[in-house]
Amino acid sequence: MRLFDDATLRTLERLSLWADEVRVGVMKGNRRSRRRGASIEFADYRDYTQGDDLRRLDWNVFARLERPFIKLTEEEEDLAVHVLIDTSGSMDWPAGDDSENKLRYGLRLSGALGYIALSSGDLVQVTLFDGRGQSAWGPFRGRQNGWPLLQFLEASLAARAGGDAAARQTVTGPFLRGYAQRAHRPGLLFLLSDLFAPADYRDGLVALLARGYEVALLHLLSPDEAAPELAGDLRLLDVETGDAAEVSLDPQALEEYAARLAAWQEELRRFCGPRGIHYASVTTDQPWDALIRGALRREGVVR
Amino acid sequence: MALLAPTALVLALLAVPILLLYMLRLRRREQPVSSTWLWRALVRDRAANAPWQRLRRNLLLFLQLLILAALVLALARLALRRPGLGGNLIVLLDASASMGASDGSPTRFDDARAAVDGLIGNLSGDDRLTLIRVGQTAEVLAAATTDRILLRRALAVAAPENGPADWPAAFALAAGSTQGLSNPRIAIISDGGLPEGLPPLPAEVTFLPVGRAGENLAITAQAARATASGPQLLVAVSNSGTTARSALLSLYLDNVLYDSRRVELAAGAQSAQTWSLPAGATLARTQLEPRDGLPDYLAVDNNAWTPLDAGSTRRVMLISDGNLFLERIFTVLPGYELFRMSSAEATQATAAEEPFDLTIYDGVPLPDGPLPSSALIFNPQPPSGAGADGSSPLVTVTGTFTETAAVRIADSPLLENVDWGSFAIANAQQVEAPTLPAVVSAAAGPLLLAGESNGRRVVVFTFDLRASDLPLQIAFPIIMANITAWLNPGRVIAADNSQPGSTVTLLPDGRAVRATVTLPDGSIWARDIANAAQPVVFDQTQQPGVYRLTTTDAAGAATPAGAFAVNFFDAGESHIQPAASLQVGQAQVTAATGGFEGLRELWPWLLAAALAVLLVEWWVAYRRPLFRTR
What string of DSSP letters covers B423-459? Predict the structure, then answer.
């Protein structure tokens, strides 16, 4: 099961991810850091203070002025890119290998993002989480890891079919909190989820922000969730929890649903905006590459 | 609102199975969705979990219950109380003379007509109205029809009469009209004046009164009589109102004012006035006018007419071979001029130049054919003509008998104050007269017969006066006066105190070929007389006043043949005080106050509504899937 064809991959190679806030690279990367570091690019001088690396003392200046100055250079560092994919039951919707399947769409999107990041030499960690636990790939760096990433994602996609959907509860909030606590390398974090969660996910997002992550929230919805084509007296069965909701649907009820959905998305947008979380509401009938080149570029995540 | 068949409401329980079916039917289609998280809020809001609220917005169920409600109400015969008829209404429209009283707008009958028009205007649906005009005869103007135009046309031509209403006949007609009608109702539009003892009606009776006031002055009787001092006129006037009245009673003789008198009448009182009339007057008319400025609502009873046949003598032809008693008695009886003729002359004189009012056949054969006038026959003889077989159409002589003691004496005006046993009869002719009833019979045959033949009154004595001592008794002038009064010779017009609407029998003499009556309003009524012996019946007597008869003979000469008066002498109709209630059968029907209210059944509309809702329901059921593809 291929997520991408070669042409797509070539397109992805030309893109790079960009985060404004996160500058905690450990490895030398190929992007300029706000930190002053050890590269050859001169940046500034500053007074020596005790404990500074004597190797960075500019001896020529010291000889001329008899005062020690530390030569500051540009730090060039890598970016840690975290891709978190909600693989709960509700994400595996619409059922089947539908191109509008949210999970498939999310894996494909995360593959693209991961591939972009790897191509840029960034550190990439992809984590699939649900109620049972998580499976992670990485962190890896380098273009040579692109293919293993895609293999991992394809394997995950194949594996989800056999999974027990009911067991794959959405645990977005607790998971995000735990992820934030475990973080040793905060960076740009993509969260792909439908957010159909009984528990609140906001404290998880806040915890991530507190740890210095720059979060991009890709809110995935299938077209039939955005505009359900249902009518009559229905017993709605939740594929994730198995819960049932009996509802009599008429045009008025559908309008109410649409209004409620819009209000929810607006609420998310209002939550994310002030906190610097990039929020993009995505319906899966939208081409994923258009999303990357469109919505994510508008958000300043992809350049 | 009313339910005519409320038991049908039990069918509303059918809603229970419908609801149950709905609850059972509401096994919802299962539809997997990615998450019910968003839906739950919706469900919470719409509170669609509770069973009763499940139904709340269910349009189809609502529509079906609506259909059921409409059908149940239709079966329960929901009806609206509304001004109108509600079913089959039979209207008895009083057309008696009192309805012509001018205390309405302008008359009571106009008010009544407006009331009927209102009822016609309220006709709706399959309401049927039968309009019966109650005059001197009850007349169905329109029978059980829904046609407003027909009803209005019939109403427009209805007019009150100058006479009493025949309520028993109207009640019988109304009762008959209710046959076969569902939910019949009877409305009596009247000012009262219904007689006692009317039968109950087989329907609900509503009384719509008309009339407001009862002020009326009336001439209730008028008659002329001859006295020794000349003719006298007696006039009775009455005040049927509730206040004392003052009126002027004027007497016109031959349309010239002769005298006027002021009459004071207490409430409900009568007064009799007498005038001595001069000789020679032919017509007396009295007129009553209120003189106190108060209204007199009924005008028709304010005039009365009496023809006076002053000075007219009746011509009597005595065909006899000599009878001193008869010659004498007709010289004694006032107003008779006697002509004599022997039997031999009589057979030659075929037709008299001037007709006689009375012909007396004393012991002579009767002529062939019909009698020319009233006849008094003594001692009838078989026809003398050759070839006669001893029979005449009227009287057939079969023999003679001597057992003349009366064995049966009928109660007859001829024998008033006459003691038949006070005289003796030697012998009498045995006759057969099938058309003449016997007044006095002996064992062997009748002695005195009296009856009518072809409109002529005939009295037959089967004995010869000279074979009896009757002419010597006091009974003779009495019986002759009775007989001549009964024969009423010369009365071309057989009418006594005619009232509007009554019939008058005209008996023109044998020469007349055409009878013409000039009505009070000047119009002419004429009738050709085919058979001189047949009386002519005149029935156009609606107008009070003087009717003048003229006969025309074959030569075209017109001869005045007398006059008769039609007077509105009806104390009951002159009493125009409107009644507040009617007695119908045992029930007292009070005046309907709040207008006429009918029940208007709504089941056709309910059925139509049910059908319409059914169509809507079908549309909804059919249309709903379309929302999915919206």
Answer: S-BS-EEEEE-TTS-EEEEESSSEEEEEEEETTEEEE
Residue A25 falls inside a structural domain: no
Q: Is A241 on the interface with B (CB under 8 A)?
A: yes
- Whole-number Cα distances in Å, B320 to B191, B313, B380, B397, B467: 61, 21, 11, 18, 15
Give the chain A residue whose CA is nearest to the CA of B57.
Answer: A248
- Contact (CB, 8 A) for A217 and A145: no
Domains of chain B and CATH, by start: 2-81+604-628 (no CATH), 85-212+578-595 (3.40.50.410), 217-311 (2.60.40.10), 314-487 (3.40.50.880), 493-566 (2.60.40.1930)
Q: Which chain A residue shows the shortest CA-CA distance from B43?
A: A247
**Residue B193, CA atoms < 13 Å, CB-side half-sphere:** 29
Residue A193 shares a structural domain with residue A254? yes
Q: Which residues of A touch B42 (CB under 8 A)?
A: 247, 253, 256-257, 260
The total number of structural domains in chain A stands at: 2
pLDDT of residue B351: 54
- CB burial of B131-150 (b: ≥16 within 10 Å; e: otherwise) equals bbbbbbebbbbbebbeeeeb
Looking at the structure, do residues A85 and A55 belong to the same domain, yes or no?
Answer: no
Spatial distance between the Cα atoms of B151 and B118, rounded to a whole number of angstroms: 11
- Give the whole-angstrom CA distance, residue A222 versus residue B34: 9
**CA atoms B31, B37, B39, B44: torsion sign:** positive
Mean pLDDT (chain B) is 81
Asked if A230 and A220 sit in the same domain, the reply is yes
pLDDT in tens, B28-53: 778 888 888 888 777 776 654 445 44
Q: How far apart are CA B527 and CA B516, in angstroms?
A: 6
The whole-angstrom separation of Cα B253 and Cα B255 is: 5
Contact A239 B629 (CB under 8 A): no
The DSSP result for B204-225, as a single string, is EEEEEE-------EEEEEEEEE
Which residue of chain A comes nearest to B48, CA vs CA? A247
**Among A284-298, B267-281, B433-447, whose mean pLDDT is lowest?**
A284-298
What is the C-alpha to C-alpha distance for residues B567 and B549, in angstroms, rounded to an integer? 17
| Mean pLDDT across B514-531 | 84
If pLDDT is split at 50, 70 and 90, which confidence band does B391 have? very low
Question: Predicted ipTM?
Answer: 0.76
Full residue range of the structural domain in which residue A66 is found: 31-77
Strands (E), B66-155: 78-83, 88-94, 128-134, 138-145
Residue B607 pLDDT grade (very low, low, confident, very high; cuts 50, 70, 90): very high
Q: Across the interface, do A257 and B627 touch by the CB < 8 Å criterion?
A: no
pLDDT bin (cut points 50, 70, 90) of residue B628 is: very low
Helix H or strand E segment including B150: helix B148-157
A194 and B CB contact within 8 Å: yes
Nearest-Cα distance to chain B for A191, in Å, is 19
User: In B, what residues contact A, Cβ < 8 A?
Assistant: 26, 28-43, 45-46, 48-49, 54, 57-59, 624-625, 627-630
pLDDT at residue B70, as a whole number = 92
Q: Own/partner pairs for B42-49, CB < 8 Å, 24+ apart?
A: B42/A247, B42/A253, B42/A256, B42/A257, B42/A260, B43/A245, B43/A246, B43/A247, B45/A256, B46/A247, B46/A248, B46/A253, B46/A256, B48/A246, B48/A247, B48/A248, B49/A246
With beta carbons less than 8 A apart as the criterion, state whether B431 and B397 touch. yes
A86 and A173 part of one domain = yes
Comparing CB atoms, the residue among B40, B57, B627 nearest residue A245 is B40
Nearest Cβ partner for A248 among B57, B627, B628: B57
Q: How confident is the model at residue B71 (pLDDT cuts 50, 70, 90)?
A: very high
